[in-house]
Amino acid sequence: MSDLQRINDEIFPQVFGLLPSAMDSVAARAMLLAIGLQESRFEHRVQIGGPAHGYWQFEQGGGVVGVMSHPAVKERTRAVCGFRGVAFSAPQIYSAIVNDDVLACCCARLLLYTLPGRLPNQDERELGWAQYTEAWRPGMPHRQTWDAFFDLGWKTALGDSQ
Does the reported pTM lie above 0.70? Predict the structure, then answer.
């Protein structure tokens, strides 16, 4: 099983068991898969040549602090940390997301939740790109890879990955 399929089949059920049911949708799953592919290809748990951790590549002072401090998700982040046995501190979360895919994915979903508006539909690659770059603020964005990753995320989330 590929890591992409493992995230979809094994990690997502755990993630969405910890988050409010309103946070679970095919669009949310597709975006999480697309962003994971864009950030790490689900191959690199520590950024090559950089400081980011986990498949969704959170920096301690960026995404980690973001989900710890944003009023819309702070308490949910604290609760998820409690369920995962991780102290609610930036260094502890940053360290844990290297290998705790459930925590890393929860943080990624919570970061997406901080954005205004709805998540993109399957045919809205540009909206997906805009939301990804707004939330992740990549230092060196690679737009040329996004469409294929977005499409693969949707295909996988819809159960059509074969």
Answer: yes
